[in-house]
Amino acid sequence: MKRVFFSLVILSLVFTACPPLEEDNYIYYEATMTYDGALDYQKWIEILEDVGNQKKYIKLDLQDCTYVAGNGSGGLINVTLHNNFDGNGNPIPNPSDPAYITFDPIPAIGWGKDKIVAIVLPDEAKMINQATDKKVQAETEADKKRSAFANFSNLRSVSAENVEIIGNYAFVDNKTLTEVDFPSLQRIDDYAFEGCTNLAKNPL
Hints:
The protein has about 200 residues and is an alpha/beta fold.
């Protein structure tokens, strides 16, 4: 009996002393939550509430969600990208500046985002929102806090069939992100993947 007890103590010490393998810390999603239809501010808030009420990690599939004209923030919005800036870095509007249907996760709202391990963005999305529309001259903490994917603290995977532009700071310091799939990607703005130390390969 003493030998059995001694062996159990030794095993306990071994497991306590040895840190878990990295694979043991990997979070897998346990369910897929799929949404379609108009993705405006109210709908996005409802989705985050649904996700936040889950007791498990999930994959969020928004592939078939659509843009609603006039939606100003949250979900899918229409964003004009400016090409010209004044001496202070402020955008100078021009009628020729292009506009893009953009995915805006509302970085100031954190509820539910920690449950999302994988996300599929809407097919209508052509861009992931910028943290700032000013010309980025240096990395700032204020801009980093406005990162599109701020508060997605367990996010591992992002895919988007038609996203062409990833806005500045979009995934900055997201150290859990390991894979992205943007087959239509053409442009990555400043600091979009800065600090993504576990990302397997360059998105372009």
